[in-house]
Amino acid sequence: MSDNDDVPFNRNFPLKAGIVEEVRPGVRRVLCNNPSPFTFTGTVSYIVGRGNVAIIDPGPDDEAHAAALLDAVRGETVSHIFVTHTHRDHSPNTARIKQATGARVYAEGPHRASRPRFESEKHNPESGSDRDFVPDVRIAHGDVVEGDGWRLEAVATPGHTANHLAFAWPERKFNFVGDHVMGWSTSIVAPPDGSMIDYMDSLDRLAAREEDLYFSGHGPEIPDGQRFVRFLIRHRKAREASILHRLAKGETDIPTMVRAIYIGIDPRLTTAAGYSVLAHLEDLVARGVVTTDGDPVIGGTYRMA
Questions:
Q1: Distance from C-alpha of 157 to C-alpha of 233, rounded to nearest angstrom
Q2: pTM for the whole thing?
């Protein structure tokens, strides 16, 4: 299969909620029962190592999922908790796991937006962000944290959120990529929380690395990770081309672009699609390709520069 072939999304993920599964030696996963159009079958938490272990992404505020995770490591010591990013389907359960285990929490930092909010943007407190999360240890790109039989390197992957990190295990060529790369669907990039400019840079950063088996925040593992990343880059560039194709016909707004580009979309995802288009438009405006009156916002109208 050549690099130019489309890489199909894989929606085959039979894992049942609450069951611990060893997906590779030294890597176990437990699915949370929080399915939705945004989370697929639910959030996947990972257990790294044996005996003295790390947990990656404890998941949403969900007592049953915390119990399943703790059950999976019964008789073992949880020494580290890692959080890829601060959306409510990934970080709120951290407090429960920390309280039960005494483990220290490692993450990039508290939640923050990718850019300041524009005056004309309404603040939506229900944006899905976990604003209560604060790690014990703040880590940055290139920082390495070692445990008993494992070694994880922080890889800065902003874009889906400003504080998104992936955790690479270079010796095993594994990468725990959170929501930056998912095998079942594209990631949502919704300004001001997310940034398409950052997202594309982060894809390039992953593509340049050696790890080729990705463990994602939702859905199945992704073999041949770098090739999948190159597919995502092509997919985003095709999306940008579709936006420019529509704008070439004249000035328009985001809902019109969504109707033209996302044919047959699940109606529940229309708003998210609009924000994804906005993320592309922010990038295009920053590059001087597209223009708008005032700030690039969801309610704006756009035209070729």
A1: 14
A2: 0.95
